[in-house]
Amino acid sequence: MAGKGKSRWADDEDDLAAEAQRKREKEEKKRLKAEKARKQEEENAAREAGPSSAPREGPARDDEYEDRPPAKRRRLSPERTAPEVSSNPNASSKLLRFEGGTFGRSRSVENYNKLNDIEEGAYGWVARAQDRDTGKIVALKRLKIDPKDRSGLPVTGLREIQILKDCDHKNVVKLREVVVGDDTTTIENIFLVLEFVEHDLKSILEDMPEPFLASEIKTLLLQLASGVAYLHDNWILHRDLKTSNLLLNNRGQLKIADFGMARYVGDPPPPKLTQLVVTLWYRAPELLLGATRYGRAIDMWSVGCIFGELLTREPLLQGKNEVDELTRIFELCGLPTDETWPSFRRLPNARALRLPPKQPGHVAGSSIRARFPLLTSAGVSLLNSLLALDPDRRPSAREMLEHEYFRQDPKPKQEAMFPTFPSKAGQERRRRKQTPLAPVRGQQAAELGSVDFSGLFSGREREERGGGFSLRMV
């Protein structure tokens, strides 16, 4: 049995001496800690007593703070209300202060009086309203939010708000503010306050008795290309360009709207993007064939479809489904080949396509020239390039602005000379025809499977093609 004061683990005198030394060091450490605590209390008491108290003598030793917890970091920037800052104007000039934005409560939608409904789209419901304070007419867009979805505000709504807040261009609709309903416990009443524009291009095309003049079409296309170029320069893909998303005011100004499917992309774009974008009639062939990596060319295909719609006053490629849409594209633009579209066979939905074999006298190229006999050669060239099957051969929006088509007579009409139309949006609900809606986020893209296009151009060999027109021999 070990004696008193001897460690029960000690086997010899050296172990016993080491144990005693450790105890002495431990007791000395406790004594120093108690001494430092006593001195700290004396300093605190002297500080509370006032400046008359005697200051502490001698400098502080380094080992004095060895066991003390680290002191709270000293404030370097004085508060704005500190008396020394307000009394000394030069004090704040020595400090670097960065002003940051603050979060505030959104205004209520009750600040606006609803006048009439305008339309309902895939991602929101739009109404015309008036600001109670200023009397200004605005468009209120209520975001569509599924109350059963527990994930909160949909990513499409967040992207639309972010992109519209970042955009500042005369051909892009302006976002004034975001307002909410009085019941802030739910997120179902979120409204975008947008500038009010009297018309959308689709309604005008449906109701106008005569088509646009060539000079007016050029003006609209130039404004569209300018807006798209601005978006692409700022790394934004719209991904749902169509005539119902193009607004036109009574001063001849076109504005791109409805950014529910838009998103930011980089260069190169992300390796896997959703292929279920763009309304069916304006969807590029690479999307129909399952491409998940795409870029600005999909917007330029939609611009080409809009160009054709301005000429005919009806959508250019009105497919009933994805297969029918591809059929109409191949009928108008020709069949894809290794020369016209070298990489199309690598797309997921293109591997099972059965295309007609090449035959002597078989016309399988573009029929845009025959479809638009009154369009100038430069116009046909521009439309052919926009509707090129290979996305790499489509021009950018900046290149489109420099095309020869816009420099030929007739020159683009000035915006101030543009015709005006009665505003349906300002008076009544628009009559919507049976047209496909934009894809809904989360839906699955169609699987085309095995599709036979071998009989697509049967009978075309009897056509005689001339300069700007086609004749069918009877």
UniProtKB/TrEMBL annotation:
One of its GO terms (molecular function) is cyclin-dependent protein serine/threonine kinase activity. It is an enzyme of class 2 (transferase). Residues 112-406 form the Protein kinase domain. It catalyses: L-seryl-[protein] + ATP = O-phospho-L-seryl-[protein] + ADP + H(+); L-threonyl-[protein] + ATP = O-phospho-L-threonyl-[protein] + ADP + H(+). Its EC number is 2.7.11.22. Residues 20-46, 58-82 have a biased composition (Basic and acidic residues). Keywords: ATP-binding, Kinase, Nucleotide-binding, Serine/threonine-protein kinase, Transferase. Residues 84-93 have a biased composition (Polar residues). One of its GO terms (cellular component) is nucleus. CDD domains: STKc_CDC2L1. The keyword Transmembrane does not apply. Residues 1-98, 406-443 are annotated as: Disordered. Signal peptide: none annotated. It comes from the Eukaryota. Belongs to the protein kinase superfamily. CMGC Ser/Thr protein kinase family. CDC2/CDKX subfamily. This is cyclin-dependent kinase. It comes from Echria macrotheca.
